[in-house]
Amino acid sequence: MYGPLFASFKQYLDDAQAQRERVIRGGRDITQSSKKAIFALQHAPVGDSGADGYKSAQKHLDEALNAFNGLEKDLYGTNGWRYNHQMSGAVQEFIEALSFQHYLLYGQVIALSKVQETIPGHVVVTISDYILGLMDLTGELMRYAIGHISGGSDGPSKEALDICNTLRTIKSQLVDKVDGAQFSRALGAKEWDKKVSTFNACVEKVERALYSQQIRTIDQVRGKKRRRGS
């Protein structure tokens, strides 16, 4: 009597599990492609969209977008929210890569609306994903700034100074103003505190590196003047 009913329940659960596994695999592909894009961008010059680093990064971002599109049926309708937890990490990683590319090309922090325009509409992109993606971006900006910090005899490079100012703006206009309690509930207090601590450490590392570079430049200039005087 109940055989067909239980069989239908079993089929529903099997389909849901298969769907969940496809979403998880797709999320891993998106994360992997996004990480490759970030790696390529670390070697790209500021503003030169024709450079190999940007071409390689765009290729990997396109791969991530294809993976998003491949999940359209699985994330259609309310499933976008149903699997939001499984997709959130991949979305944040993609936002990190996309915002890194956007910053290096245009010198600006990407807007949430631009992120939502880029990621296919069947994928849920929350304000939390956007903020956490930008917080992760600071680590890449820190590495880029330190790798490009020398401006020769003029002191720290303009790229490094601009990045430092951008990090300070993200801190004052975004991180310091968000509801920490809300993110603590969503991520867990320990995880949120770790995110904030890492973010602040990135800002401080860039500031210290700029300060050290400026001191070295001043010492070099003084040394040259002494040698000329002697």
Observed structural traits:
Methane Monooxygenase Hydroxylase, Chain G, domain 1; 230 residues; 2 domains; 9 helices
Describe it for me?
The chain is mainly alpha-helical. The chain folds into two domains: 1-125, Up-down Bundle (Methane Monooxygenase Hydroxylase, Chain G, domain 1), CATH 1.20.58.190; 127-230, Methane Monooxygenase Hydroxylase, Chain G, domain 1 (Up-down Bundle), CATH 1.20.58. Helix content is 77%, strand content 0%. It contains nine helices and no strands. The protein has helices at residues 3-41, 52-70, 79-82, 84-106, 112-118, 127-147, 158-173, 180-187, 189-229. Helix 2 (52-70) runs antiparallel to helix 4 (84-106), helix 4 (84-106) packs across helix 6 (127-147) and helix 7 (158-173) packs antiparallel against helix 9 (189-229).
Walk me through the topology.
Elements: H1 3-41, H2 52-70, H3 79-82, H4 84-106, H5 112-118, H6 127-147, H7 158-173, H8 180-187, H9 189-229
Helix pairs in contact: 1-2, 1-4, 2-4, 4-6, 6-7, 6-9, 7-9, 8-9
What's this entry about, in short?
The chain is 77% helix and 0% strand. It is an all-alpha fold and 230 residues long. The mean pLDDT is 87.
CATH topological fold name of the largest domain: Methane Monooxygenase Hydroxylase, Chain G, domain 1
CATH architecture of the largest domain: Up-down Bundle
In N-to-C order, the SSE pattern is HHHHHHHHH
Q: For the residues shown, what is the average pLDDT?
A: 87
Family: Belongs to the translin family.
Organism: Blastobotrys adeninivorans (Yeast)
Protein name: ARAD1B11066p
Subcellular location: Cytoplasm; Nucleus
